[in-house]
# Entry
Amino acid sequence: MQKSIEKRLSEEVIPKTILGIMAKTVDPESGQELSQMELTTNSTILLFFFLFTELTPRFAGVDTTSTGLTFTLYYLLATPGKWNRLCEEVRSRFRSAKEITNQSTSSLPYLDAVIHEGTSHLNPCVGFSHIFG
# Structure
């Protein structure tokens, strides 16, 4: 995995993929990009998650939810203005990650809109929507 990542990142133009977006991401507090180890770790987790959801028996909603959220995250990262707006809303409301709970995030209108739009427009089961409702 690490050699593949190093090869992709050594290309003259970094591709517009999740890996490319992660490689360009800068921590707003420290100003640092992800390290090679962090890129490898995150890529491995994403790959494992994809393989788990695609190659295991279907558990109620696991693969559809993960696919919808994965592509929601992808499109957020591909549109920096939307990503920045979401980050601003979350960071202005919370001072630490410990404050973030299901209940506390329910008052964030942009986060709510992102989740609803992402899961409705990127629904992997859209072909069955007329059957289920």
DSSP finds eight helices and no strands in the chain. The mean pLDDT is 76. Residues 36-55 form the longest helix (20 residues). The two ends are 41 Å apart (CA to CA).
